[in-house]
């Protein structure tokens, strides 16, 4: 029995037992359901082993949505706990675990997965390619992310969740103060999914540099592709720092080293330093693709070319460089001298300049445009003022001396939610709605979509604007309760009300998907939004090979100019198409990584060694495997094209 | 014969062996900590350069510009990370 005692929850509560039962029941239901409908073969052949960038993208997005609801449930629990003073809904320990999980899930497993999912689906289509550069690596990226996410998500029912905040500062995260295996989970879940992210980064850079359609020079790429290129460059340069920091943390916690210890020559704040060297670029990894999505949507629904294309690109390059020069602003209060803080204060404020340029470019794109107020456009329009408020409070936080007042208060919490929600979350929803017909061949209902939009926007304002006020009044973040005398009660209740509206908004989106799946017409044509870039030049939903004929591009608004000026995008004849084979190795390898991580978390060395050897075995096998892919014949392509109403030659 | 013989690679190989010997001398010879670390830093960077340019053919393909651009970007960020951390963790306290 001693062996199994380590899996016990250190701080059990009825809610956790209820979740255990729920997880068990849902797992059984899924297995029974798939078996009953005899879908195992379909699932394995069409999805789990696929190397198709479109299907991998959809799997990323589904996982991201699941994680959004997991993290969203955490958020509502936190708002409920703090809605009234002296609340006893959650105890301190449980509250710590909830805010830690909320942060990690939302950043790593929701936002990252969502942007990588959209990039997966859209990038090859926008550059006129048939897949990413390394389709098999892409599948491995997804499954490693998924293994990491699952490893993190079982923590609260097996062994205990991490509870040291998503920033996981030492010495709190050391074994002296975090005695459960929670932080081990944090280290290994992020390590495994981080490997996947790094591989995605390399994959997309290569895809964008090497696989663009003829005629598409760098300065003729759609803005989303540009933003993705820069994002992935940041990924490749930033993630290694996290990898090493996590490894050092693992050594500290599991092998007794002193990297982040307070004694024996260790430096506890070195973790914070390394974490933010990765963490601040990470912020831009999240926001730049969002900027790209807004650029596509605003140009489409204003029916104008994107204003200031070159300045958009230059400002994104500037942001990517500046993003690596500002990280100390996350710990201005650590005690540096005025000189050090001033340097990072100035670099931080400098980022506002390229970001401001982009804001004006979007406004000028809409200027004198024929604006169509579709749901994606509504999110984009709401983004501009709300994000600007978040940006302005960011400049307030960048003033190092004033930051001593704001640091670790709800003001900060309000600020970063104010940039991340209108910035990233709105963009993800807008992008999902915008590209939904591309993925599934029908449109989401506009009327229900607009209801969801208003719930989310109003809910967002009510949730987070009160926090600016309570934060300035001195409410610290991460406090599980407060006394009535502080006066935070009414505004916190208002914030809970806003969180409920947000939750309702997301529920409406889910209903909308169900409703539209049942009722939406399927004969929407290839270009339902009257859009401008290349992904709309092929069919809805996209056939496996993306384009029957490789398109030839002459401008940055390839499809729009083809429609308006009569360019012929598809000049060549249909030829046989080379496609990658499906493979089961990525999911098997990720499963082994899961076992590896899980064993490591609990110090089960036999499991670590066996799964480690098996992983190396998979790599060795792959090195000797010969897989030249397969060809889709001309007849097969013509048949598919005819089904869509004629080949587009 | 001269065209076929990979003179550059052989010289590079000898040079990189030489660099290794110099780096090893830090262990076998008596010298101050600072001197030793300086030798290690210099030989490490030169060694990395030799490997990249001679054996990984960084400057030979059509991607020459992209490869060097990302190399410079990487070096810049490595320097920022190292010296920024030193500033934040060690030097920045009056």
Can you walk through the features of this model?
The complex is a heterodimer of chains A (649) and B (94). Chain A has 649 residues and is mostly helical. Chain A has two domains: 9-38; 39-583 and 627-643, Cytochrome C Oxidase, Chain A. Chain A has helices at residues 2-5, 14-36, 40-48, 53-81, 92-126, 135-153, 182-210, 223-255, 269-302, 309-322, 338-366, 375-398, 400-406, 410-440, 446-472, 489-519, 558-565, 585-601, 605-624, 634-643; strands at 577-579, 630-632. A two-stranded antiparallel sheet of chain A has the order 1-2. The longest helix of chain A is centred in the first third of the chain and has 35 residues, at 92-126. The N and C termini of chain A lie far apart (69 Å). Chain B is mainly α. Chain B has two domains: 1-56; 61-94. In chain B, 78% of the residues lie in helices and 0% in strands. Chain B contains three helices and no strands. In chain B, helix 1 packs antiparallel against helix 2. The longest helix of chain B is centred in the last third of the chain and has 28 residues, at 64-91. The radius of gyration of chain B is 18 Å and the shape is flat. The termini of chain B are far apart. Chains A and B meet through helix 8, helix 9 and helix 11 of A and helix 3 of B.
Topology:
The complex is a heterodimer of chains A (649) and B (94).
Chain A lengths: L1 H4 L8 H23 L3 H9 L4 H29 L10 H35 L8 H19 L28 H29 L12 H33 L13 H34 L6 H14 L15 H29 L8 H24 L1 H7 L3 H31 L5 H27 L16 H31 L38 H8 L11 E3 L5 H17 L3 H20 L5 E3 L1 H10 L6
Antiparallel strand pairs in A: 1-2
Chain B lengths: L6 H22 L4 H23 L8 H28 L3
Helix pairs in contact in B: 1-2
């Amino acid at each position: 029995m001693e062996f199994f005692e380590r899996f016990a929850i250190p701080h059990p509560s009825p809610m956790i037992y209820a979740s255990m039962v729920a997880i068990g029941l849902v797992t059984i239901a899924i297995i029974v359901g798939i078996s009953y409908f005899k879908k195992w073969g379909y699932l394995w052949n069409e999805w789990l082993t696929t190397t198709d960038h479109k299907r991998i993208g959809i799997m990323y997005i589904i996982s991201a949505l699941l994680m959004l609801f997991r993290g969203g449930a955490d958020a509502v629990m936190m708002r409920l706990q703090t809605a009234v003073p002296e609340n006893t809904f959650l105890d301190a320990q449980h509250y710590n675990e909830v805010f830690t999980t909320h942060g990690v899930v939302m950043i790593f497993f929701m936002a990252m997965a969502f942007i990588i999912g959209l990039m997966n689906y859209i990038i090859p289509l926008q550059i006129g390619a048939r897949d990413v550069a390394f389709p098999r690596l892409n599948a491995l990226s997804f499954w490693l992310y998924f293994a990491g996410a699952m490893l993190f998500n079982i923590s609260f029912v097996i062994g205990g969740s991490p509870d040291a905040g998503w920033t996981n500062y030492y010495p709190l995260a050391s074994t002296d103060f975090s005695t459960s295996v929670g932080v081990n989970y944090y280290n290994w879940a992020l390590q495994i999914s981080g490997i996947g992210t790094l591989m995605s980064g390399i994959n997309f850079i290569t895809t964008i540099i090497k696989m663009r359609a003829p005629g598409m020079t760098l300065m003729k790429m759609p803005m989303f592709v540009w933003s993705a290129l820069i994002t992935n460059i940041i990924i490749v340069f930033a993630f290694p720092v996290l990898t090493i920091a996590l490894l050092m943390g693992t050594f500290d916690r599991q092998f007794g080293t002193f990297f982040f210890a307070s004694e024996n020559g260790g430096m506890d704040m070195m973790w914070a330093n390394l974490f933010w060297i990765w963490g601040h670029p990470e912020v831009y990894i999240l926001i730049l693709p969002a900027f790209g999505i807004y650029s596509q949507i605003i140009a489409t629904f204003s029916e104008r070319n994107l204003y200031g294309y070159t300045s958009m690109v230059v400002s994104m390059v500037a942001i990517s460089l500046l993003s690596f020069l500002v990280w100390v602003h996350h710990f201005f209060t650590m005690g540096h001298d005025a000189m050090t803080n001033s340097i990072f204060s100035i670099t931080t404020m400098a980022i506002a300049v390229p970001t401001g340029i982009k804001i004006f470019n979007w406004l000028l794109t809409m200027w004198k445009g024929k604006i169509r107020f579709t749901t994606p456009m509504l999110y984009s329009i709401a983004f501009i003022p709300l994000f600007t408020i978040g940006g302005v409070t960011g400049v307030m936080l960048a003033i190092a001396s004033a930051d001593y007042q704001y640091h670790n208060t709800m003001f900060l919490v309000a600020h970063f939610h104010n940039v991340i929600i209108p910035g990233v979350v709105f963009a993800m929803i807008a992008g999902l709605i915008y590209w939904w017909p591309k993925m599934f061949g029908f449109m989401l209902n506009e009327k229900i979509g607009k209801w969801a939009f208003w719930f989310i926007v109003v809910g967002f304002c009510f949730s987070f604007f009160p926090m600016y006020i309570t934060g300035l009044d001195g409410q610290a973040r991460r406090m599980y309760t407060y006394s009535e005398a502080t006066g935070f009660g009414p505004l916190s209740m208002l914030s809970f009300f806003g969180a409920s509206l947000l939750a309702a908004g997301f529920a409406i989106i889910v209903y909308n998907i169900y409703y539209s799946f049942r009722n939406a017409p399927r004969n929407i044509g290839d270009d339902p939004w009257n859009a401008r870039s290349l992904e709309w030049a092929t069919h809805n939903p996209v056939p496996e090979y993306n384009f029957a004929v490789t398109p030839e591009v002459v401008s940055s608004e390839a499809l729009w100019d083809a429609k308006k000026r009569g360019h012929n995008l598809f000049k060549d004849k249909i030829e046989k198409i080379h496609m990658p084979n499906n493979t089961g190795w990525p999911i098997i390898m990720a499963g082994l990584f899961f076992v590896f991580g899980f064993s490591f978390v609990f110090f089960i060395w036999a499991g670590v060694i066996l799964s480690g050897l098996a992983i190396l075995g998979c790599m060795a096998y792959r090195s000797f495997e010969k897989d030249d892919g397969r060809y889709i014949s001309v007849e097969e392509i013509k048949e598919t094209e005819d089904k869509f109403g004629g080949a587009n030659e | 014969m001269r065209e076929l013989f990979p003179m550059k690679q052989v010289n590079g190989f000898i040079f990189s062996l030489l660099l290794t010997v110099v780096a090893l001398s830090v262990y076998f010879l008596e010298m101050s900590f600072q001197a030793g670390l300086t030798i290690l830093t210099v030989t490490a960077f030169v060694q990395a350069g030799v490997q990249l340019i001679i054996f990984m053919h960084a400057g030979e393909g059509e991607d020459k510009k992209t490869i060097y651009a990302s190399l410079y970007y990487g070096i810049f960020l490595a320097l920022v990370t190292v010296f920024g951390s030193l500033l934040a963790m060690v030097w920045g306290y009056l």
